[in-house]
Amino acid sequence: MSALSKLNKKRALSGLSLLCATVALNACVTQPPSFGGGIDFREARYNEISAMREYRECRDHALELDGEAQAKHDPAKYLASARMIEKCEAKLGPDVADIALDERMRAYALTVQNHLKGGDLESARENLDKFSANFQGRDLYFADGSSFVQTMEVLLGKRGAGAIGRYSDANVNNELKAELRRVRYWERN
């Protein structure tokens, strides 16, 4: 083989190697990163934090009213506190419906109790139904282990009056059960 032929082969191999390397490197190059997803996430997170901050400020004001109602035994302030918490919850949009559930459950449970303490039994029943629907079967428990939902159902008359064992299967405080049975007995006798 001539020197010229060897040189052409060498150039052809070099060119082919360079072409393969270029193709391989082009395959490795990725698209420039998209920062839109990160910005959208940060914006959504900022909106969630802002909404919860506003909710907590509103709720804290309602809790102050609740404290005043307890100190003065004022039914009107119980009702005002309950309505304020309802407004706080209503201001939250669907974007933040799954945030701080335990905190929001405790606040909404207070609306049920405060409507009851304020004498508005119909609103208390409606809020208990909303509580069960919005928090999908979740419950709160008092210090003695009794169920908030079942206790409110008993107090608000949502359990059937003629049901056998009306209170026996409910996770309700024993003293409350005994008192309700005593009242029921004297209503009938």
Domains (count): 2
Helix content: over 70%
Low-confidence stretches: none
- Give the DSSP E fraction (strand runs of 2 or more residues): under 5%
N to C succession of SSEs: HHHHHHH
Shape: elongated
Total DSSP E strands: 0
**Secondary-structure-derived class:** mainly alpha
Question: In this structure, how is the largest beta sheet organized?
Answer: none
**Overall mean confidence score, pLDDT:** 81
CA radius of gyration: 33 Å
Q: Alpha-carbon distance between the termini? A: 125 Å
Task: Enumerate how many helices there are, as a single number.
Answer: 7
Task: Describe the protein's architecture and organization.
The chain has 189 residues and is mostly helical. It has 2 domains: 50-138; 141-189, no CATH class. The chain is 71% helix and 0% strand. The chain contains 7 helices and no strands. α3 packs antiparallel against α4 (101-118) and α4 (101-118) runs antiparallel to α5.
Describe the SSE topology.
Blueprint: H1 3-28, H2 36-72, H3 75-91, H4 101-118, H5 121-134, H6 148-155, H7 174-188
Helix pairs in contact: 2-3, 3-4, 4-5
Which short descriptors sum up this protein?
Lipoprotein; signal; 2 domains; mainly alpha
